[in-house]
Amino acid sequence: MNRIRRRRLAGFGAALRLPVRVGYRTGRWAAVALLAAVAVSPSLAGPGPEAKAASGPGSSRFEPEWSWPLSPAPTVQRFFQPPAQRWLPGHRGVDLPAEPGTAVLSPEAGTVVFAGWVVNRPVLTVDLGSGVLASFEPVQAVKADGTKVSEGEVIGHVGAPAEPGHCPASCLHWGVRVHGNYVNPLNYVTDRRPSILLPLE
């Protein structure tokens, strides 16, 4: 090992406060230990995404991406239960308790792309852009196909429960598809971030 390489290793060892023996046999192991220390050292590797999120402005405050389709924010009567396979039964949305005639609001700005009947229930679908569709049923639409709507705008009213009823009582079924795949609508209106432990003051 030449003198330049010895000096570099010795310098890094001093910065990390690690004893480094730079010899022919130990030099290789010192280099391996040094690289491992750099990989785990916060001061050298820099903060990861979690640290940046935790230290960013307003990071402790949750800002929902969308608004709820009902006001005030409702409870959830039945949660999202995706099937193991697309063709198997499941619950591809959430059920929100609501009486017939309750106003249904667009959760985000978009365009109404369907307002009609599917089998025995009225359905309304809003295209929110980027391949995201939000559908509601049973809903008597007040907006026609092709109508642009803003976030929080009334797009319809909860219709009478279909027969047989989807819910034990009257409800609004809300489904969200991203590029044709159903996802949990609550991801857009509730804080789904994992809980973290904070130090006691």
TrEMBL record:
<dbReference type="InterPro" id="IPR011055">
    <property type="entry name" value="Dup_hybrid_motif"/>
</dbReference>
<dbReference type="Pfam" id="PF01551">
    <property type="entry name" value="Peptidase_M23"/>
</dbReference>
<dbReference type="GO" id="GO:0004222">
    <property type="term" value="F:metalloendopeptidase activity"/>
</dbReference>
<keyword id="KW-0732">Signal</keyword>
<feature type="region of interest" description="Disordered">
    <location>
        <begin position="45"/>
        <end position="65"/>
    </location>
</feature>
<dbReference type="InterPro" id="IPR016047">
    <property type="entry name" value="M23ase_b-sheet_dom"/>
</dbReference>
<feature type="domain" description="M23ase beta-sheet core">
    <location>
        <begin position="90"/>
        <end position="185"/>
    </location>
</feature>
<protein>
    <submittedName>
        <fullName>M23 family metallopeptidase</fullName>
    </submittedName>
</protein>
<dbReference type="InterPro" id="IPR050570">
    <property type="entry name" value="Cell_wall_metabolism_enzyme"/>
</dbReference>
